[in-house]
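Format is sequence with structure; example below:
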Amino acid sequence: MFLKKPALAGLMLCAFLAGPALAESHADMSWTESPYGPDDEIGAANLLTPERAKAAAGLVTEGKTYSLGLVLDSTVPAFAPRSMSVAILQPGQANNSGLGPTKSTYNDDIFMGWLGIGSQIDGLGHLGVDHVYYNGNKASDFAQAAGLTKLGIEKVPPIVTRGVMLDMAKFYGQPILDEGTAYTREDIMSAAEQQGVEIREGDVVLFHSGWLDLLKEETRDAARYGSVEPGLGLTGAEYLAEIGVIAIGADTWGMEAVPFEEGVGIFEVHQFLLAKKGIYILENMVTEELAADEVHEFMFVLGQAKVRGAVQMIINPVAIR
């Protein structure tokens, strides 16, 4: 995610004003019980099967690959106060010609930063409701300073399944969608019909809005990019959850519409997907080339770094057609 502090303060004010309504909407705690049992830690990833992976491989007709991850550097989109930097070192080589008679020299690197930066997957321990997370896990029981003891990113299995891309910019007829544009249930159904693709159980669904164009040199507006966005609306999230998708991603920093829809709380779509339905969120996905080639169905492959106890992870998933 990416938000400047003034924008974040504005969101917090909205939360204060909407507080009573949100509290009422979260009164039903039946969502804290996973359909996969009391020990479940992977949510919708339970729907991954060898059969679905094999079927996804059958979609590959050309072998063309699409990198869905952003290139990372110190200017990469990041939810404040997240940041990153890299330091290159030549350990123990400052005053010599290298190691041994062959004079071997090498470069090493140190990464300093947050894992929820750039293109990323949100794990199920990321967003909760009043400190309660997926499958009823309370933060006081599993969110330790040294790492999550449950719901860590290392629990997520390789995600190899059918991917679907909906070009919402094309659907709405705009090269870059307006901020706050919320993809409703009806919008998603109509866009899928328009683009000749069916969303099925076990899919990963990606949305293209053109929003990443705001980070290109010729159209750069990083302030706008990181303070607002088009994205998934609450009824759209409910629709995709009913179908039984595994993950939902977009070419935006936070995946859901900001400003938030009227009557929808701060990151309530995140809460619904992660905490209540165990559906993963993929942010800052590079969907431009898929949209340009009008690729709406493909093999989706994601294997994140398995850092024990991490909440999120930088990713570079691949679409293959």
Remarks:
- The first helix runs from residue 5 to 25.
- The first strand starts at residue 65 and ends at 67.
- Confidence is low (pLDDT under 50) at residues 2-6, 12-24.
